[in-house]
Design a protein that fits this description.
By secondary structure, this protein is an alpha+beta fold. About 25% of the residues lie in helices and about 15% in strands. It is elongated and about 45 Å long.
Length: about 50
């Protein structure tokens, strides 16, 4: 728990992080371009449609 306690992690507008209490809050659904991960949705759909 101490590894995230002192970090500033509020880098997304759609998430709120309280490092002191180690709690987070989901504020809103992000737009696809606000998610930094390289996710290929078409491959996920293809996998689960088999």
């Amino acid at each position: 728990t101490n590894s995230v306690a002192g970090r500033v992690i509020n880098k997304f507008n759609w998430l709120d992080w309280n490092a002191h209490e180690l709690t987070g809050k989901f504020l809103a659904y992000p737009n696809r371009d606000e998610i930094p991960e390289n996710i290929k949705e078409n491959l996920i759909v293809e996998l689960y449609s088999k």
